[in-house]
Amino acid sequence: MTIYPHSGTGPGSITPDGSPVEFYMLLRPRGEAEIVGQVTPSGGSVLELGSGVGRVTHALLEHGFEVVAVDESAEMLARIKGAETVLSRIQDLRLHRRFDAVMLASFLVHTSDEDGRRALLSACARHVAPGGAVLIEWTPPETHDAQQVGRGRTDGDITITLAAREEVGPELFSATMRYAHGDRVWTQSFTSRRLSDDDLRAALTEAGLHLDRFLTDDRRWVLAVPTT
User: Fold this and answer.
1) CB-CB contact of 104 with 124 (8 Å)
2) For residue 20, which of 41, 140, 178, 228 sits 20 to 30 Å off, Cα-Cα?
3) What is the CA 109 to chain-centroid distance, rounded?
4) How many CA atoms lie within 13 A of 91 on its CB side?
5) Range(s) for CATH 3.40.50.150 in the chain?
6) Measured distance between the N- and C-terminal CA atoms of the chain, rounded to whole angstroms
7) Half-sphere exposure of 194 (CA within 13 A, CB side)
8) Residue 220 · residue 126 · CB < 8 Å
9) In the CATH scheme, what architecture does the domain 18-140+194-226 have?
């Protein structure tokens, strides 16, 4: 199986997966803690997989959740304050604890590595408590297919643009994002797999999870629950 490299450019540190640390420090929460609150008891425990610099972590803490933040970048984790942090690849994580909610954000489920996707979802399944919630951020096919080079969004004074996109295999896309803040510019390049609804359901089922429902109108956030 071909493993596609990720890369990044721009000022400051770049993590091995191409993430520009200084750029991610600029981003603000986008309602993730409120989404978690829909399916997690007040003061409940949350395992945040791929927490990065804590953009969502800190919002979860402000909402009263007990948070364990996991990332494979020590530099990212060093920016998190107030939460327990664990330096680990998600695929290798075995905390021997279970949580009211497990979050797999940042579209990690779209990895081009099929074995990697299985390992990510298995990590979710083995850490969620019985009756708990697994929240997964993904790109629904209708949103994926509407993406256009040169289009993007603004987040305050930050501009995020899809700079390049190419299909490099069946349902496999290489993309480059351009991030700008004032005179600072970063790029982040990665390869991701387009997932249909059936693909997502099948991957969840294989991991011992069931797609319960979509938590947002744009279908960006998925609620999965343990099958047993």
Assistant:
1) yes
2) 140
3) 7
4) 10
5) 18-140+194-226
6) 32
7) 19
8) no
9) 3-Layer(aba) Sandwich (3.40)
Instruction: Name the β-bridge partners of 153.
Output: 160
- Tell me if residue 11 falls in helix, strand or coil: coil
pLDDT per residue over 58-85, tens digit each?
999 999 999 999 999 999 999 999 999 9
- Cβ neighbours of 2 (radius 10 Å): 9
What's the predicted TM-score (pTM) here?
Answer: 0.95
Query: Rounded CA gap, 124 and 152, in Å?
Result: 30
153 phi, psi to nearest 5 deg: -150, 165
pLDDT digit string, tens, across residues 148-204: 999 999 989 999 999 999 999 999 999 999 999 999 999 999 999 999 999 999 999
**Nearest CA-CA partner of 190 in 163, 215, 213, 211:** 163
Q: Which residues contact 89 (CB under 8 A, 6 or more apart)?
A: 72
DSSP string, 1-60: -PPPP-EEESSS-B-TTS-BHHHHHH----SHHHHHHHHS-TT-EEEEET-TTSHHHHHH
- The amino acid occupying position 217 is D
Residue 156 has a CB neighbour count (10 Å cut-off) of 9
Which among 96, 99, 142, 128 has a CA at the least distance from the CA of 210? 128
Residue 111 is classified by DSSP as B
Cα–Cα distance for residue pair 53/95, rounded to 1 Å:
21
How many whole angstroms separate alpha carbon 228 and alpha carbon 215?
21
